[in-house]
Specification:
175 residues, four-stranded antiparallel sheet, 31% helix, globular
Length: 175
Amino acid sequence: MRYVVVSVVKGNAGKFNNNLRKEVYEKFNVKSSKLPAHFTIKSPFESDDISELENLLDKFSKENSYAHYKINGYDHFDDRVIFMKVIMSKEGQILHDNLVDSISNIDYINFNNLDGKNKIFHVTISSKKIKNIFNDLWNYVNRIQCDFDCKFDNICIYRWENNTWILHKEYELKK
């Protein structure tokens, strides 16, 4: 089975991203992720048994408190991806890196430079076939104010099922 580990962006920032992705789809006919608003912790991987990951995340969430981060403005990866910029707090970066270290000990999980400790935190708006309309799309989103205070307060496992991502389990970090 295919899985991904993310932190779902909740509250006003999450609603904003989900609505903006829908708006962009309707206006420009470009698709985005089938996941809710999120930043990725571990990109998709395959495994028949994720009980070790589930146990690790359960323990990690009970031992660690949430951290704050900001979402402010937009950025892009070349002309392929447009996203909301995540400005992770020092505490959030430490939390994330400790989580990556913990998960790295699981045999079937391998991080690379795009999803490991030194990733560029981001919340994607558009990433599917935007090259031909990149400038129009970029100009469009940049007219919309984007400034949110957020909490890195959850770790979610999603599984790929029936051509979409289904929430498998959510772990809430301590308050």
